[in-house]
């Protein structure tokens, strides 16, 4: 067993799309998806950009104000720990934080069930 400290992992700073206070640290890769730890400093922003594939941002600590919509004009929604935002492929989206954020991003060819849905029959 290994324990990963997502907030303490060395990350790569991202400034693209007007982003600020944003860093990412790769966690894993499958044939179908990327797993990335994301940190966003207080007052930080991940600038509006199109999702390269289905993308799910799972908030672990802090707050995230997210927006999306096919034309990028979706109303901002604030989500917190234990909540996730999902964007579809090519959907323009943005993430901001007032107090700082640690999140897990899963991006790629992922199937999402409804909460409580067993994706793998072996889970029952």
TrEMBL record:
It comes from Nocardioides szechwanensis. Coiled coil: none annotated. InterPro entries: Cupin_2, RmlC-like_jellyroll, RmlC_Cupin_sf. Residues 38-101 form the Cupin type-2 domain. Pfam families: Cupin_2. This is Cupin domain-containing protein.
